[in-house]
Amino acid sequence: SMQCFPSLVLALSSLLGALALLQLSLYLRVPSRYGKHEERLCRPRGRLPARCAWFVQELPSFLVPALLLALRSPPRLEPLGCRLLCCLFCWHYFYRTFIYPFFTRGRPFPLQLLFFGTLFCIYNGFLQGYYLIYCAEYPSDWCTDIRFTSGLLLFLLGMGINIHSDLLLRQLRKPGEVTYKIPQGGLFTYVSGANYFGEIVEWFGFAIATWSLPAFAFAFFTLCCIGPRAYHHHRYYLKTFTDYPKSRKALIPFVF
C-alpha cells in the first residue's frame, strides 16, 4: 500500500504553483489558440471533435483519484470530512467527463492542447487524490468547521454558476452552428467570463474546505489559466460586436 510522503506533496504543489505562473506569463497578452481565438488560416488537421476531446482530457481527473482510493488498503472511509472532500473533487470531474462533453457544441480541439491538458489532469488528479486519500488528517468534526462549511457553500455556488453558464452558452448555437454570439442571461449580464468565474469560485471554495496546499495551488492555477482567457474573451466580444454591453466586466462583477 502507498504511504504519505509530505515532501512529495510539497514538491508537486510547488511545481503546480510554478506552472500557474508560467500559464499567466504565456497567455496574459496572447490567448491560447483554440475556440474563438483560433487562427483563421489554421488548417483543421490534428484535431479531435470537441466532445471526444473534452471526454479524453477530463477523464484522468476522475479516474486517478478513484484508482488511488481503490488501491488503498484498508479503504479510507473516515473521517467523514475527508471522504466528502474527495467526493467533491470527483463529482466535479464526473460532470466534466460524463455529462458536459455530450452537450458541448465547441469547435474541433487541437491535439497538442489536448495532450498537455490530459497530462495536467493526470498530474492534478494524482496530487489532489494522493493528498486526500493518503495524507490529509482532519478532526472528526471537520464537517462543522467554518472553513469546511464556507468552502462547501462557495464550491456549490461556483459549480452552479459554471453549469448554468455552460447551459446558456450552449443555447446560443443551434446544432451544427459554429458562429459566436453575445451570451445573455445569468451572470453574463455582468461579466463576459461567467463560466470561468464560476469555476474559479468553485476551486477556491474547495481549497478553503480542504485547507491544504495542493488545493490552494490548484485554485491558483485555475485563476492563472482561465482568468486571462476570460479577459481575452471580453476583448474579443468588444471588438466583434458593436452592440456589446459596455457595462460588462471581464471576469469579476463590478470590478474587472
Which secondary structure elements does this structure contain, and how are they paired or packed?
Layout: H1 6-27, E1 47-48, H2 50-71, H3 80-98, E2 109-110, H4 111-135, H5 146-171, H6 194-210, H7 213-240
Antiparallel strand pairs: 1-2
Helix pairs in contact: 1-4, 1-7, 2-3, 2-4, 3-4, 5-6, 6-7
Task: Write up what this structure looks like.
The chain is an all-alpha fold and 256 residues long. It has one domain. It has helices spanning 6-27, 50-71, 80-98, 111-135, 146-171, 194-210, 213-240, and strands spanning 47-48, 109-110. A two-stranded antiparallel sheet has the order 1-2. Helix 2 runs antiparallel to helix 3 (80-98), helix 2 runs parallel beside helix 4 and helix 5 runs antiparallel to helix 6. It is globular. The model has no long low-confidence stretch (mean pLDDT 89).
